[in-house]
Amino acid sequence: MLVLSRRANQSIVIGSDVVVTVLEVRGDHVRLGIDAPRTVTVHREEVYAEIQRENRSAATVPGAVLPSLPRPPR
Amino acid sequence: VLVRSERLGDLEVDDAKILTFPEGLVGFPGDTRFVLVEIEDGEAYRWLQSADDPRLSFLTVIPWHFFPDYEPEIDPITQQELGLKDVTDAIVLCVVTIREATPAPITANLLGPLVVNTTSRVGRQIVLADSGYATRAELVGA
């Protein structure tokens, strides 16, 4: 992993069109600003990881026979 | 086109019915072509079967059958990229997880719904960051 030290208001450039700027550092809290083309999706890692984990569990439905699925309430 | 499915058997599917997820689902970037298959006796559910990998299928649910107040906010960039003029132009499905526990809770991922343009049949799994929706919302039946 590349490790860089940055202060508030300093940036890093990723590729040619993604710029990450440290906006504010306060205690253990860092605010980042991200400039990226609209085609690049940016997510907090933990949210993305949670959806990825859920998709992986969902992709392997156990057993050949489905349990009876809940019927929608009316 | 013939779509093979370990779960559903061989499916003969009209080419026009193939859904394309250009980025795949989150964690499954390589699988971009899917078909939706209705479930006998389960109007709220659909199978999402990979058109290229017979082993890959997801059970999905039309969320409003169980969560009538669900309001996924589709961000403007996604709307533009999927060519959605209005949310009603979209099919919205939530991926269902059935766990190997007893009793097995059956949950739907409301945080990362699948959104598909009904006309172009192009879709994406969106992430509703900061929405407060759960990845494991239990489907409570009647």
Question: What characteristics describe this protein?
Answer:
heterodimer, A: 74 residues, alpha+beta, 3 strands, elongated, B: 142 residues, nine-stranded antiparallel sheet, 34% strand
Summarize this entry quickly.
The complex is a heterodimer of chains A (74) and B (142). With 74 residues, chain A is of the alpha+beta class.
Descriptive notes:
The complex is a heterodimer of chains A (74) and B (142). The N and C termini of chain A lie far apart (53 Å). Chain A contains 1 helix and 3 strands. In chain A, a hairpin with a 3-residue loop joins β1 and β2 (18-26). A 3-stranded antiparallel beta sheet of chain A has the order 1-2-3, with no helix packed on it. Helix content of chain A is 20%, strand content 27%. The mean pLDDT of chain A is 89. Chain B has 142 residues and is mainly beta. Chain B has one helix spanning 76-81, and strands at 2-5, 9-12, 19-20, 33-38, 45-50, 57-61, 90-98, 106-108, 114-117, 123-125, 137-138. In chain B, the strands form 2 sheets. In chain B, strands 3, 4, 5, 6, 7, 8, 9, 10 and 11 form a 9-stranded antiparallel beta sheet that branches. A two-stranded antiparallel ribbon of chain B has the order 1-2. In chain B, β7 and β8 (106-108) form a beta hairpin. The model of chain B has no long low-confidence stretch (mean pLDDT 91). The chains are: A alpha+beta (74), B mainly beta (142). Chain A binds chain B through residues 38-39, 41, 43-44, 47-48, 50-59, 61-62, 64, 66-67, 69-74, and chain B through 7, 25-28, 39, 42-45, 56-59, 65-66, 77, 81, 95-100, 104, 106, 109, 111-112, 125, 127, 129, 135-136, 139-142.
